[in-house]
Design brief:
mainly alpha
Length: 225
């Protein structure tokens, strides 16, 4: 422990600003990936509950493939495969590839979360709205989805916490985020233990407020449920 303290005393002034800047990249990556994943997830969830067979089976196939494939494999495919097979127009930057890879898997996860929230509502509400003359699209937008979002807020919040930590795998495709900066500092300083302990602290500081927010949402929903 005294050795670790000495390392921090000698290097913290150099490491802290660099890792703090890298945290901004991690938060940006997490936010963009979450937004894209939520859009994909909602779209796939609506396909999943469609009365038509084709959209439903396309959604099921997407969900099973993306949930059953490791995030790192998806990142490698998105980042490395297009230029190697001649699809240069699909070549993405490391940040864009990281967003795409995380969002594809996240979309599959959130699709099932959204589907469960929609199906948790009593079918009578949808039938009543249709009986009053609302179109299926308006029924979904104004009646079903607002109530479903209230149900799925806690699991979506838990997914957001997991996504923030999952961004660490994006360092393997050189996406600008905290773990990539930590690996660079560990290599240049030859102090991996000290660097990664500091990185772990930064991840905790970023994720703990999200954890508190999820607990607060669960408390509010339990109180007013």
């Amino acid at each position: 422990m005294p050795r670790l303290i000495e390392v921090y005393e000698d290097n913290i002034r150099d490491w802290f600003p660099e890792m703090l800047a890298a945290c901004v990249g991690t938060l940006k990556l997490s936010l963009v990936a979450f937004i894209v994943a939520a859009v994909i997830g909602l779209f796939v969830a609506l396909m999943r509950i469609s009365p038509r067979t084709s959209p439903r089976w396309i959604a099921i196939s997407f969900i099973e493939v993306m949930r059953g494939t490791p995030a790192l494999v998806i990142l490698y495919i998105v980042y490395f495969v297009p230029p190697q097979v001649g699809l240069t127009w699909l070549t993405l930057s490391s940040f864009a590839a990281a967003v795409c890879g995380l969002a594809l898997q996240g979309g599959a996860i959130l699709a099932e979360v959204f589907r469960s929230g929609i199906e948790a509502l009593h079918s009578g509400q949808r039938e009543a709205a249709l009986a009053l003359g609302m179109t299926p699209a308006k029924t979904m937008r104004y009646i079903v989805l607002p109530q479903a979002m209230r149900v799925v807020l806690p699991p979506v919040g838990n997914y957001a916490i997991g996504l923030l930590k999952d961004t660490s795998v994006c360092a393997l495709i050189a996406a600008p985020e905290l773990m990539l900066r930590a690996k660079d500092l560990a290599s240049s300083s030859f102090e991996p233990m000290a660097v990664f302990c500091l990185a772990a602290l930064f991840y905790f500081i970023m994720s703990y407020p999200l954890s508190l927010a999820v607990r607060y949402m669960e408390y509010r929903l339990a109180r007013h449920g």
